[in-house]
Amino acid sequence: MQVQQRRPVVALLVGWDIEPAMLQACALSAASLHADFYYFFPSGVDEERQRIQGMHLNDGQWEKGEFAYPDVVYDRMRRREVSGFTEVYRKLEHVPFTHTLRGRWGRKSIIYNMLRKDETLRRYLIPFQTLRDADAALAFIHEYQSVILKSDRGASGEGMFVVQVKEGWIEVSDQEYVHRLNDAQMRDMLQMLVPQRYCVQQLIPSVTAQGFPFHIRVHVTKNGQGEWIVGFCSPSLSLHPSIKVTNSEHAFRVSPTWEKFLAQHLNEKLGGATDRHIQRYAIQLAQFMDGELQGGFHEIGLDIGLTEQGSIRLFEAGLGLPSALFHFVEMALPAIAYSLHVAARAEQQQTEL
């Protein structure tokens, strides 16, 4: 009589509601890789019984259930060692996790300064300064004329300001309103932002021929062999030319496919010069950061722009919770495959003890 082989179990740890499409993509990706899947919140872990209350997909519907501890946790909460979140990590300390860095690690300035160490990667960076001194920041603004002020920990364009030096005054856009300031008022504003951990970065025009600002989200991820790949490239255009932060909640955005963007904006195809260049750059960056941090993460979100000459410029890189407008399968499939890789590696290490 044939004995049915036990399927590995991947559990997704979430701390708040996430896109239903992402949950479904994870469940379907796990099924395609012959694994079981459920998701859970920290409150669902029963340490004494080593059981977890969670949700699993059954005939297309999410159902509550009680499950044994999984073989691996795909961590999309990423709050390890952060006050208020430590208990769930302690309860599951013997279960392998995909992400083991301290929660919310990697402010924009830390990552940017890390990349400055590499001679090749440094060429893609944009003049940048951590906002510690209002006078130094004001001098930076006058030097580069057009800059972005952004929170060191911010996401999705939240709290960003576009600052442009005009003749005799300074224009500050908060993505909704435009303010006209003199130098003294600008210095006061910068002083107020110092304790809020802001950065100031030169504004690099990244616009289509029609004048629409855009950025490209490049999702770099480890696959089922533990190797870095580019999961997807997702252009995002602001249809408000005056709103230059293209992921701002105030912008009316469109997101064409990468193939169509290449064709329309650059007259190129997939596998062409720009596509290959971005792929090489993204993987080189991921491999460099992996070496610097000695692992502990498996997903990086890069926001890049293209100058008028077609040169790549890195706006920022993040190790936080990755996001996508439409590319949930492209995000979930390598993440689940990597989760199974982590589980298999942990099981092998146990047998070798």
TrEMBL record:
It comes from the Bacteria. This is YheC/YheD family protein. Pfam families: ATPgrasp_YheCD. InterPro entries: YheC/D (IPR026838).
